[in-house]
Amino acid sequence: MLSEIAFYGAIETGLIYGLVAFGIYISFRVLDFPDLTVDGSFPLGAAVAAVLIMQGWNPWVATGAAVLAGMAAGAVTAMLNVKLKILNLLASILTMIALYSINLRVMGRPNIALLGEETVLTPWYSLDLAYHQVPVLLFVIVVFIALILLWRFMKSETGLAMRATGANPRMARAQGIATGAMIILGVAVSNGLVGLAGALFAQSQGAADVTMGVGVIVIGLASLIGGEAVITPTTVIRALVACVVGAIIYRLAIALALNADFLGFKAQDLNLITAILVTLAIVLPGARNSLVNKLSRKKA
Fold first, then answer.
1. pLDDT tens digits, 248-272
2. Residue that wins the pLDDT comparison between 59 and 299
3. d(CA 275, CA 22)
4. What is the pLDDT of residues 27-53, one digit of tens each?
5. What is the pLDDT of residue 297?
6. Is-contact 21 231, C-beta < 8 A?
7. Mean pLDDT over residues 124-130, rounded?
8. pTM here?
9. How many angstroms separate the CA atoms of 62 and 119, rounded?
């Protein structure tokens, strides 16, 4: 069983990765744009926020700058695809590789410690809550606000145009939608959310590291696919809730697997556990639907 601290820690990290899942939902599901930029924009958000906080900036302003930096990275990927006609997957890989060097330049060194610095969490520790409960409360509020804003955006005229671009680009262009602009905007927003997640993660963990983005795309996909296996994304709001639920379930499953001695997993098995969870999330819904269809035919 999980200790109280491990449980809240899993929820805290799950909420942060819920923001990553929001971003991946926009790129993969809404725009049908496979985007690996997130492995670079996540540490970019962490690096920008950490450097500005170390320079004495207000933590929320530093976090906002991290969002803008993530959006800029996403816009570069989209423009490589839209303007230079580079395959979307290759464009995102090019940007991700470039961001490694950019992140090193931003930080000036491989990592920055934020211990003792004021972060977005600092004022919240004065509340009458346990130390490990404070980040969960703040991140619930941040994720809820992001969810509502995304939901309203997707229902707006621009959001509908973006959804049309991902569903049928040719038809969207025939309706007068500037599909290139929609792709640039969508991928920028996607990576802005990932930059926000990176900034919050760095402040939560007390450090920013150039390698902290490795595997973020896999974690985000695991959260997205796992959430959709639990909550059928028939509407935008259900899809967004599924992202958060999937991220929390993923982190709880990781924590349980690493703390269950009888399973024999260790910290170095994290990627193996992730691969198993993603495989199960992909296979189980199909198996469930197949079983339901068989039962329906028998009843008929």
1. 998 888 888 777 666 667 767 777 7
2. 59
3. 20
4. 999 999 999 999 999 999 999 999 999
5. 74
6. no
7. 87
8. 0.91
9. 9
When the pLDDT of each residue in the chain is averaged and rounded to a whole number, the result is: 90
CA dihedral defined by 186, 188, 192, 193, rounded to 10 degrees? 20
Provide the CA 9 distance to its chain's centre, in angstroms: 17
Beta bridge partners of 111: 209
Q: Which residues of 163-188 are buried (b: 16+ CB within 10 A; e: fewer)?
A: bbbbeebeebeeeebebbebbbbbbb
Tokens at residue 231, please?
């909550």
Q: What is the CA radius of gyration of the chain?
A: 20
Buried b (16+ CB within 10 A) or exposed e, 91-116: bbbbbbeebbebbeebbeeebbebee
Secondary structure string (H, E, C) spanning the chain: CCCHHHHHHHHHHHHHHHHHHHHHHHHHHHCCCCCCCHHHHHHHHHHHHHHHHHCCCCHHHHHHHHHHHHHHHHHHHHHHHHCCCCCHHHHHHHHHHHHHHHHHHHHCCCEEECCCCCCCCHHHHHCCCCCCCHHHHHHHHHHHHHHHHHHHHHHCHHHHHHHHHHHCHHHHHHCCCCHHHHHHHHHHHHHHHHHHHHHHHHHHHCEEECCCCCCHHHHHHHHHHHHHHHCCCCCHHHHHHHHHHHHHHHHHHHHHHHHCHHHCCCHHHHHHHHHHHHHHHHHHHHHHHHHHHHHHHHHC
| CA–CA separation, 42 and 62 (whole Å) | 14
